[in-house]
């Protein structure tokens, strides 16, 4: 029996080298079939033009001007064809090649689970304490650059509230998943590296919030 399509999505913001790492990590996955979608939310078309030449197999879209990140995420889900959708930022990537197959199999055997929160760390080998450990377990939240969900459940839950301040949208959607009677599970078998490099970014790409002022400050990695 053929495997379901997985849509792997990226939001781009002026960081070509980091985005390239993410795309290459998706292409290296053992799981198939996949589609890769990128929305270039940058103020210029440089990323979009580069994608057309360097990665013609990637589906890309250019925004007219930078849009709030929740709106761009909703656009990606609306454009995705996969049964399952993965969210990445342009500075995040898969840390290994095999785990996505296990994630799909887990979804297929657990229809009450809407969302998998992946293990999430940085390029220095430091792991977010809320998304670490070796055991699958129930959780109440996820990080948007390290998550996979059923596209149908995302739509049923109402998607992201596009006018909600940036970095609150995960909370709103998590409540939406619970509201339709579904669960969120932490799934450690797909580790995600989030470099969190602010090259070219004086303000946040999604809401013009100065970098560092968001609710995940309390989730910083152990020094």
* Helix content estimate: 25-40%
Global outline: globular
**N- to C-terminal distance:** 47 Å
Estimate the mean pLDDT confidence.
89
Structural class: alpha/beta
Strand % is 15-25%
Number of DSSP E strands: 9
What characterizes the major β-sheet?
A: 9 strands, mixed
The low-confidence parts are 205-223
Instruction: Output the number of helix runs.
Output: 6
Radius of gyration: 16 Å
Order of helices and strands: EHEHEHEEHEEEHHE
Compact overview of the structure:
This protein is of the alpha/beta class and 223 residues long. The protein has helices at 16-27, 46-54, 69-79, 99-109, 151-156, 169-179; strands at 6-12, 34-40, 59-62, 84-89, 92-94, 113-121, 137-139, 147-150, 183-194.
Based on the model shown, name its key terms.
single chain, 223 residues, alpha/beta, nine-stranded mixed beta sheet, disordered C terminus
Report on this structure.
The protein has 223 residues and is an alpha/beta fold. It has helices at 16-27, 46-54, 69-79, 99-109, 151-156, 169-179, and strands at residues 6-12, 34-40, 59-62, 84-89, 92-94, 113-121, 137-139, 147-150, 183-194. Strands 1, 2, 3, 4, 5, 6, 7, 8 and 9 form a nine-stranded mixed sheet that branches. It is globular, with a radius of gyration of 16 Å. The model is unreliable at 205-223 (pLDDT under 50).
């Amino acid at each position: 029996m053929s495997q379901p399509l997985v849509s792997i999505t990226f939001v781009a913001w002026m960081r070509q080298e980091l985005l390239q790492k993410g795309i290459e990590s998706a292409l290296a996955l053992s799981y198939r079939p996949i589609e890769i979608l990128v929305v270039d939310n940058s103020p210029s078309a440089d990323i979009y033009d580069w994608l057309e030449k360097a990665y013609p197999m990637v589906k890309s879209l250019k925004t007219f001007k930078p849009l709030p990140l929740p709106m761009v995420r909703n656009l990606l889900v609306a454009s995705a064809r996969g049964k399952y959708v993965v969210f990445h930022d342009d500075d995040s990537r898969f840390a290994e090649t095999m785990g996505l197959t296990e994630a799909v199999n887990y979804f297929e055997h657990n229809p009450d689970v809407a969302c998998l929160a992946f293990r999430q760390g940085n390029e220095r080998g430091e792991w977010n304490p809320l998304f670490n450990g070796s055991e699958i377990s129930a959780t109440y939240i996820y990080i948007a650059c390290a998550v996979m969900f059923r596209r149908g459940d995302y739509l049923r839950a109402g998607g992201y509230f596009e006018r909600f301040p940036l970095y609150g949208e995960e909370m709103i959607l998590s409540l939406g998943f619970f509201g339709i009677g579904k669960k969120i599970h932490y799934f450690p078998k797909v580790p995600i590296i989030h470099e969190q490099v602010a090259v070219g970014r004086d303000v946040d790409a999604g809401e013009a919030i100065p970098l560092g002022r968001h609710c995940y400050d309390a989730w910083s990695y152990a020094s």
